[in-house]
Each structure stands twice: as structure tokens, then as C-alpha cells.
Amino acid sequence: xxxxxxxxxxxxxxxxxxxxxxxxxxxxxxxxxxxxxxxxxxxxxxxxxxxxxxxxxxxxxxxxxxxxxxxxxxxxxxxxxxxxxxxxxxxxxxxxxxxxxxxxxxxxxxxxxxxxxxxxxxxxxxxxxxxxxxxxxxxxxxxxxxxxxxxxxxxxxxxxxxxxxxxxxxxxxxxxxxxxxxxxxxxxxxxxxxxxxxxxxxxxxxxxxxxxxxxxxxxxxxxxxxxxxxxxxxxxxxxxxxxxxxxxxxxxxxxxxxxxxxxxxxxxxxxxxxxxxxxxxxxxxxxxxxxxxxxxxxxxxxxxxxxxxxxxxxxxxxxxxxxxxxxxxxxxxxxxxxxxxxxxxxxxxxxxxxxxxxxxxxxxxxxxxxxxxxxxxxxxxxxxxxxxxxxxxxxxxxxxxxxxxxxxxxxxxxxxxxxxxxxxxxxxxxxxxxx
Length: 435
Prior knowledge:
Layout lengths: L22 E4 L7 H7 L4 E5 L2 H4 L2 H12 L3 E5 L8 H14 L3 E6 L1 H15 L25 E5 L11 E6 L4 E6 L7 E4 L9 H20 L23 H23 L4 H21 L3 H11 L18 H6 L2 H8 L4 H11 L11 H15 L16 H8 L3 H4 L8 H10 L5
Parallel strand pairs: 1-8, 2-3, 2-4, 4-5, 5-8
Antiparallel strand pairs: 6-7
């Protein structure tokens, strides 16, 4: 679908976008059906992957019981690390391989689901951690074939990892946070049971909820797919293709839901409607950015978490010191949207309105500022740190952060404006303190 608007044709640009939609089931009680789901996709011996915190919840008992009732063998791995590393992925891969499993069920947040995707990949096609990482950081080789079936069950309200073919992790050998992206990594089925969010701490809701919003806003404000060069063959079309009509639908719905329910979900742990809505928004945003891609805030998030292993975020007291992914992204987002607003002003204004901004009398050129200010207000009301300085960063850290972020060519390539290191440095400086 092209036309005279945002998706107008460009010389040499693509005219096609692809949607690799994941299977999804959503609703209270969905986890109790997972045994039948696993058997339906061909599993007989299941590697059930989770982390130590989720392992003691009723959700794990429900899933294990359902699998065993379906007469499936189950091997449980609860050693997933929050914010995975190449070392923790290797440990999970070893478990998966040694268990002799023919399928994986992951139950947890984005770290659990990403770890399961990576274990599936490396157990099926063993190679070095950097083999499948996008260039220039890694070799960028494609995933060579189909993986084992994987059913992903999220327990947080944000990452959308249950619907995407992306794995984010720290490569400890070279001290870089990066990602592997392939449609073959996408879970076979997402089973989303909103009752899993009932015990989430408010700080986790806030962090993961802003991951929802940044996924959606970045997808909506990404460069249009028509500005990407036409690939030599359909197989060469990248997973991240730029904003497109399909991704717009999920992205805008997720922004509206997040703007309506995030503050409520953080403020009241008994507001089940708000938490259930956020979980739905996470999947919508995941399906959107899995096609359109994310851009500057996510590219810039990797150094924020990579260079800080002492911060303890509210709600993450039982995890090792680290900057949670949602926080590392959202602290860059207002500054990035303000900076990139002039490149796609109307899209930024529409996103601001969907998030809850009063746009009466506003002009398109106000979009970036309005979106930034609306996000900052929501951050303040939900207990997010006031900027990068609140994590201990200073202007002296900006050069190495900008240099590291500039290596993230895949997400940066989706921004509506070409960004160099000096642009990234300017955004980081603006993100130091919002209030």
C-alpha cells in the first residue's frame, strides 16, 4: 500500500513489506491449556525455561501440571539471568542440548523468552555467540534452518518478546550489548495469560510498560518502508522494514492503551484491568516493531545498560545490579523524539495525541516537543528516574556511549533521519536530566 502520503513511492525504494505474524492466544486460564498446545506443535520432551523468581509462582506449577497431564516429559531450567549475557545463554543452551528436548516452553519476562530463543538457536545450530549478531559487531550470518517449536508465555507487561524474532544480550567477551534478529527465532506460539501480572512490583510494571510505549512509538515514527532500497531477492528483505500500514495499526493501539492504563497499573496493584490491558498492548507493540523495527532510543539503550552494573532499580531488588531494559530505553526516548521530531513532525504529533497530549491548536512542527513532554510527565508520575544522571552518568560518559550506540546499525537504520555519533552525543546530553 503506497500513495502520496507517508508511504509515497521513492526512486529505487521498496514497494513491498512482509508480515511474519506469530500465533497467539490470550486470556485468563490460557496457561492451563499449554499441554495440549505443546503436543499440537509436536513436542514430546519439553525444556521449560524460567528464572528463579518466576519458578516459585503458581504460574510455573500450572504450566508444569498441564504439560505432564498431556503426558509430556518436562525438564525445568530456572537459571535464566535477568538481562542475559553470552555466558548465561551458553549455560541455557547446554541445558537444552543435554536434556534432549524437542521443544521449549518459556515462562517469564523478556530475558527468559530471549534466553529460550537463543538456546533454541545454538542447540540446533551450534556456533560462536557473535556468529548470528548483526554486522559490524558480529558476522551477521543468517539462521540456516528451522528451529525446535517454542511456546512463549510472558509474565511482564512490556517486552513483547513472545511475538518477535529478536534476542538481546551482553556479549561479555567484548563488553557489548547487541542483538540477533531472525524470523526463525520467533516463537511458534505466544500464550498470554494476564493473571501472571497480578504479583508484579510497581517498578517492574513501570519499566516494562515504557518498553511497550517505546516499541510502539519508535515503530510508528520509523522511516517509511518505501524509503528502503528494494532488495535483490525477497529473501534479502530485512526483518526490520520501516513503518508500514500493518505495523501502524498495532503501534497506535498500543500507544493509546499505554497512555490510558500505564499510570493506573503502576499506582494500584489491584487494578487488574489496567495490567491486563498493558499485557495486550505489549503483544500489539511487539507485532508492530517486529515488522517496522525500532530506532534511536533502543539503539542508545544498549550502552546505558552495558556500562552500568551497579544500579538497583525499584522492583528489581532480587536481581543482580543492572539497568532494566525498559529504563535504559525510556531515559533516551524523550530526547530522541524531540531531536527526530522535525524529520517526521506529523507522526510525532499523532503519537503525542495517542499518548494523551492535548494537541488543540498544535501544529505538526510541535510534534516532537509535545511527545517528549507527554512522555516526561508520565515518567515522573510512575517513578522512572529523572534522566541518565540519576543512574550516575555524566557528560564525560557521552563520547563512549555515542561510539558504542553508533555500532547498532540495524536499529539506527530505521530512524527517519540519518544519525552520526555527534547526533547521538547530543541526544545523550539532552537525556541527562529531564526535571
